[in-house]
Design goal:
The complex is a heterodimer.
Chain A (H helix, E strand, L loop, with lengths): L3 E4 L6 E4 L6 E7 L3 E5 L8 E3 L8 E4 L2 E6 L8 E2 L4 E2 L25
Parallel strand pairs in A: 1-3
Antiparallel strand pairs in A: 1-2, 2-5, 3-4, 5-8, 6-7, 7-9
Chain B lengths: L1 H6 L2 E5 L5 E2 L3 E6 L5 H8 L5 E5 L7 H11 L4 E8 L7 H10 L4 E5 H4 L2 H22 L2 E4 L5 E6 L6 H19 L2 E5 L8 H5 L5 H21 L6 H5 L5 H9 L7 E6 L8 E6 L16 H10 L4 E5 L13 E5 L2 H6 L6 E2 L10 H16 L5 H5 L23
Parallel strand pairs in B: 3-4, 3-5, 5-6, 8-9, 8-12, 9-11, 10-11, 12-13, 13-14
Antiparallel strand pairs in B: 1-2, 1-7
The chains are: A mainly beta, B alpha/beta.
């Protein structure tokens, strides 16, 4: 069975992985059905771009803007801290991409 | 289909204020950290006996209001308050307030009772007496879904929480509201980025103003302390921004209109869907901190009269709660399998196509009715009674406002 991604609203430009996905074909379910070719490995719970997203363009999930692209994102790419930032929270951009652990308080652990 | 759900009835406990409880508990309350060990030792091994308290020596109006709301909760029949003897918070005043609500209550100072063992023995004797009294004297009363107040928060969220876990609760909340019950959700700091989306759900102009004020305060708070309600585990689980987490969290509210905002220890002013504002108010010590962990959020929901609380967790959690049973829901079937001994409900079946969202809401309602009828939830059966409150400042004009007469 192909790994699946769930698109919540038709206007969303990202979908959420329900299964871990290696690069390759993902089955899209939810508001739209089809396939999307992942260009990299994406873990369950993480997001895949459903189309090309230009830098500074809105990233949309639940039909609502959840932040903006900090660099161009291509269709099939993993969308996370390295290419999507909050409009409000300036700290999340500093977190470790894989563990989410803070990096800006490292000096306190001495 | 809903008719059977709405008319399903079980036997509850009638309190003097007219509210109905699903448990008949004795609550031991410590009034300073120094009395904490003795209080837990008193409750240890005692049936239907839970512990809450406040660790600070200096008192705090918010914490006292919260403890009194728990002490006069519909699931609580009687109270024993235990102090050390030199703290600001007064166990005697707590017992007086509880007695004024028509419940039996007793109190003592450890310094006057003797040491640890003497105090524990004295406390156990009082608890046994109070428990016997509430078991014999509390009137039983039929209860239905409409009599329930259910609170929900989420924690340890991952990408499935917004897709399945919280929407399943939303589907249940729609049923609860349609039945005439009260549904409460909180975490206004997790509604950041959703101002217009949320205001569009207001039931009235008054509700809209309350929502706008609560939202604006939450955003000022987050900006001012530079703390947004997302954790490393959320990011590792696939959530990237607070806006994204907010939308997932907001999904637990379902689709019905929002009646207004209540604050910690306030009761909903009528049936329907309510938001609980647990964010501190601005005052001379600035904001202080909002809820530092999941447990304090659950205590807030219980303080609003929730007889049952729901906790949605994608990544998994092993907490429980005193006073009101906690039901744990996950949208992640892998988490459910890995932690089945702690998880009550697998909403991940919605993502696997095994269940529709309305079916999940209905199945969750059935589970909630079984727990309301006396079946222990998994955290309850495991003995989880995690408890936490801390210093906070919130203006609350009248504690009694909104209580059902």
């Amino acid at each position: 069975m192909k790994p699946r991604a769930f698109q919540i609203q038709p206007q969303d430009n990202v979908a959420t992985l329900i299964d871990d996905s290696p690069d390759g074909t993902i089955e899209l379910i939810g508001a739209n059905r089809g396939v999307i070719i992942a260009t990299e490995k994406i873990a369950r719970g993480h997001k895949v771009a459903l189309g090309d997203i230009a830098a500074n363009e809105a990233v949309v999930k639940f039909g609502v803007r959840i932040g903006y692209a900090t660099k161009p994102i291509t269709r099939g790419a993993w969308v996370h801290l390295h290419n999507l930032a909050s409009d409000l929270d300036d700290r999340s951009g500093t977190l470790d991409l894989h563990s989410g652990a803070p990096t800006d308080t490292a000096s306190a652990y001495v | 289909m809903s008719d059977a759900l709405f008319s399903n009835s079980w036997s509850g406990f009638l309190r003097p204020d007219g509210r109905k409880g699903i448990r008949n508990l004795v609550l031991v309350i410590y009034t300073v950290e120094c009395a904490q060990h003795v209080s837990y030792a008193i409750a240890n091994g005692e049936e239907d006996t839970h512990v809450i308290g406040f660790p600070g020596c200096y008192d705090n109006a918010y914490a006292i209001r919260l403890m009194l709301a728990l002490a006069r909760h519909p699931n609580v029949g009687a109270v024993l308050s235990v102090g050390l003897g030199c703290e600001y918070t007064q166990p005697g005043k707590i017992a007086d307030a509880v007695r004024a609500s028509g419940r039996p209550a007793e109190w003592f100072f450890i310094q006057q009772a003797g040491g640890t063992r003497t105090s524990v023995a004295k406390g156990k004797e009082i608890v046994a007496r109070l428990r016997e009294q509430v078991r014999n004297e509390t009137p039983r009363v039929p209860m239905k879904l409409a009599d329930l107040t259910v609170g929900c928060e989420c924690g340890g969220s991952d990408g499935t929480s917004g897709l399945a876990g919280n929407p399943a609760v939303g589907a249940f909340f729609d049923l609860l509201v349609d039945a005439g019950g009260r549904a409460i959700f909180e975490e206004t700091v997790e509604m950041i980025g959703l101002r217009e989306h949320m205001l569009a759900r207001a039931a009235s102009l008054d509700a809209k103003q309350q929502l706008a004020a609560a939202y604006d305060k939450a955003e000022r708070y987050c900006r001012s302390v530079r703390q947004w309600s997302v954790s490393p585990g959320n990011f590792a689980g696939g959530l990237t921004t607070i806006e994204e987490k907010s939308l997932g969290a907001f999904a637990k509210s379902g689709t019905r209109p929002i009646q207004g905002v209540i604050r910690v220890a306030e009761q909903p002013r009528g049936p329907g869907l309510w938001i609980l504002d647990s964010v501190p108010d601005e005052h001379f010590m600035q904001f202080g901190y909002t809820n530092p962990n999941d447990t304090e959020g659950l205590m807030d929901l219980i303080s609003a009269g929730s007889q049952i609380v729901l906790f949605v967790t994608g990544r998994g959690s092993v907490i429980g709660s005193p006073v009101a049973p906690l039901i744990k829901i996950t949208g992640n079937s892998a988490t459910f399998r890995a932690m089945e001994e702690d998880m009550d409900f697998d909403a991940g079946r919605v993502l696997n196509g095994k269940l529709t969202l309305p079916q999940a809401g209905r199945e969750l309602a059935d589970l909630i009715l079984r727990v309301a009828g006396g079946e222990p939830s998994k955290p309850e059966a495991l003995g989880h009674r995690e408890y936490f409150i801390m210093y906070k400042h919130q203006e609350t004009p009248s504690l009694a406002a909104g209580c059902r007469a």
